[in-house]
Design goal:
- By secondary structure, the chain is an alpha/beta fold.
- It has one domain: Response regulator (Rossmann fold, 3-Layer(aba) Sandwich).
- The protein is about 45% helix and about 15% strand.
- Strand 4, helix 5 and strand 5 form a beta-alpha-beta unit.
- The longest helix is centred in the first third of the chain and has 13 residues.
């Protein structure tokens, strides 16, 4: 699925930069259920609306649906290694259509090559697991205030 080829999707991405009276939405993709639940719960307590995706494929489906509905996420948090579409591929696809929506990658395999690739593709931040949830909250606050 390519996000870049759909004009409605491209124009919907531009809406993400507009201020919203609603809670900011974060699209979270993590294939490990316990980790996804822990991160989601913390972000909700911090004032974010969290859309949970089971993997990269699910993230792309939810992202397209959110964009077409006019309710795009204000940030994306994605694991790197997941079944199907990886977090790096998610990042590359998002960046082809949108340069502004913050993307934070989380990984248990954060070597120098991965960090370099993520930076080249346009990641706003890469957090190596295990990370402190306060660190993720701080990063999101700096990118999208609740």
């Amino acid at each position: 699925m390519s996000l870049a080829g759909n004009a409605k999707v491209r124009s919907a991405f531009q809406l993400s930069a507009e201020p919203s009276p609603e809670k900011p939405r974060v699209l979270l993709a993590e294939d490990q259920g316990e980790m996804r639940s822990m991160v989601s719960s913390r972000l909700k307590r911090e004032g974010y609306e969290v859309m949970e995706a089971l993997d990269g494929d699910d993230l792309l489906r939810q992202l397209q649906a959110a964009l077409l509905s006019g309710r795009p996420p204000q940030a994306i948090v994605s694991d790197v290694r997941m079944p199907g579409v990886s977090g790096l591929e998610v990042l590359a696809r998002v960046r082809r259509a949108d340069k502004a929506t913050p993307v934070v990658l989380i990984t248990a395999f954060g070597d120098a090559d991965l960090h370099s690739t993520a930076e080249r593709l346009g990641a706003d931040c890469v957090l190596d697991k295990p990370f402190d949830l306060d660190q993720l909250v701080h990063v999101l606050w700096s990118l999208v205030e609740p």
